[in-house]
Amino acid sequence: MDLTLISQGAEGKIYTCTFLGKKSIKKERISRSYRQKSLDTKLRERRLIQESRNLVKIRKEGVPVPGLYFVDTITCSLYMEFITPSISLKNFFIQNPSIPQSLLSDFANQIGKSVALMHNVQCIHGDLTTSNMLLKPQVSLATEILNDFSPADYLVNPCMVYFIDFGLSYGSSTPEDMAVDLHVLEKAISSAHPQLEKIFIEILAAYKIHKRKADSVLTKLEQVRMRGRKRLAFG
Amino acid sequence: MAHYTLELFSPSYTVYLLYFTQVKNAKQIKENLEKFDCAFINPRLVVSVQQILFACNRALFEKFNNASKTQSLYSDVIYYMSPSSNISEAMNHYGLQESTEEVIVASFNPETLETVKTAIDGVVSNILQIAQKAQAKKMQEVFKLKDCELWIDRNLVNSVLSVLSIKDIEEND
């Protein structure tokens, strides 16, 4: 298999490859030797299955996520759609210093709606950052044009915001977990893109429209902001 | 005859496909099914060649892990084409029907397809035509795809493969 490593994290490796004749992403959960063997297998397998189920569950709600192509329970790998052309929201913000307000509002609306749709089915993403969101132009273009799509090109073509990396996702129905999910996003935006802090207000507005019982989550968010992501365990 | 590579395995496997239209002797083929070393697939609920490749890949994968669902590799191929975990329902949707006039034949052995060619009374057609012939409404129903999901892509391929990918995926104890 023609594997090309494109990214490595603590939990796994991301490759591009050809799978069933299509350019795809392979996400492999690597074995950690410091964990006891049977526990390691169990953990990798459980997280693999959790991630794949959440990916499909969320797609069913209409949230743009990569198509899942195959779950390999032996090597603990997922094969997924390679979203192309695409740019992470993080790189898009960094490489385009001035972004029209209308475009920011469009992205904020999409993000707020998608997070609401996930939460409506009790799915918490767990790692909502701008690097885990991809912009994909919605226009159909000739392959030659697609291959050299520059960061500025995303400014003039309508884009869809895809959500990726459900490796930390889990099921929960409590306003607390949803509020923490939103708080992580708020912190991610304010630390990576301080000049765009205001976008979070619009994200929340869209979230409020699409989330059932949004009020309890937003009230909780106020409390989470006061105390931070972690709940006090003692004292 | 079209052929495709299954990259997962090392060495890789090759799947050979033939698409027949205007088939006149489906009943006869169905009666002699066990004589052929291949899968006869009903194309009406096949959204693209990828769906067939997925099923072939999964059937082989399960075979190598001694986890086949049915008695033969090729009935496993039919089983993994369908979102249903009910074997007879999967066979009803994707298996060969007596009245059928179109069929896709899949095999890992190119010689089998030569035999099938002489046995089937029909016209060999381009496999890439199946995408246009898939019954989108019926597919949506069988795969339980809501309208809100369909705006993500312009076609059903990613949604169909996503649903199939998590079929029967469970933790081992």
Please provide a brief summary of the model.
The complex is a heterodimer of chains A (235) and B (173). Chain A has 235 residues and is of the alpha+beta class.
What does this structure look like?
The complex is a heterodimer of chains A (235) and B (173). Chain A has helices at 37-60, 89-95, 101-120, 143-147, 153-156, 175-192, 199-210, 214-227, and strands at 4-8, 12-19, 22-29, 68-72, 77-81, 87-88, 123-124, 133-137, 159-163, 170-171. Chain A is α+β, with helices and mostly antiparallel strands and 235 residues long. Chain A folds into 2 domains: 4-81, Phosphorylase Kinase, domain 1, CATH 3.30.200; 87-227, Transferase(Phosphotransferase), domain 1. Chain A has a 5-stranded antiparallel sheet, covered by helices on one side. Chain A has a 3-stranded antiparallel sheet with strand order 6-8-9. The N and C termini of chain A lie far apart (54 Å). Chain B has 173 residues and is an alpha+beta fold. Helix content of chain B is 41%, strand content 14%. In chain B, strand 1 (2-6) and strand 2 form a beta hairpin. Chain B is globular, with a radius of gyration of 16 Å. The model of chain B has no long low-confidence stretch (mean pLDDT 94). Classes of the chains: A alpha+beta (235), B alpha+beta (173). At the A-B interface, strand 2, helix 1 and strand 4 of A face strand 1, helix 2 and helix 9 of B.
The overall pLDDT of chain B, averaged over residues, is 94
Q: Helical segment tally of chain B? A: 9
Please trace the helix and strand order of chain B, writing H or E for each element: EEHEHHHEHEHHHH
What would CATH call the architecture of chain B?
Answer: 2-Layer Sandwich
Give me the count of strands of chain A.
10
Query: Using CB atoms under 8 Å apart, which protein chain pair has the greatest interface?
Result: A-B, 33 and 34 residues
Query: CATH H level of chain B: which superfamily?
Result: CGI121/TPRKB
What amount of the residues of chain A lies in strands? 15-25%
Query: What is the helix content of chain A?
Result: 40-55%
- The percent range for helix content of chain B is 40-55%
CATH architecture descriptor name of the largest domain in chain A = Orthogonal Bundle
Question: What is the radius of gyration of chain A computed over CA atoms, rounded to a whole number of angstroms?
Answer: 18 Å
* Average predicted confidence as pLDDT of chain A: 92
State the shape of chain A: globular
Instruction: State the end-to-end CA separation of chain A.
Output: 54 Å
The number of distinct structural domains of chain A comes to 2
- The CATH topology assignment of the largest domain in chain A is Transferase(Phosphotransferase), domain 1
Largest sheet of chain A: 5 strands, antiparallel
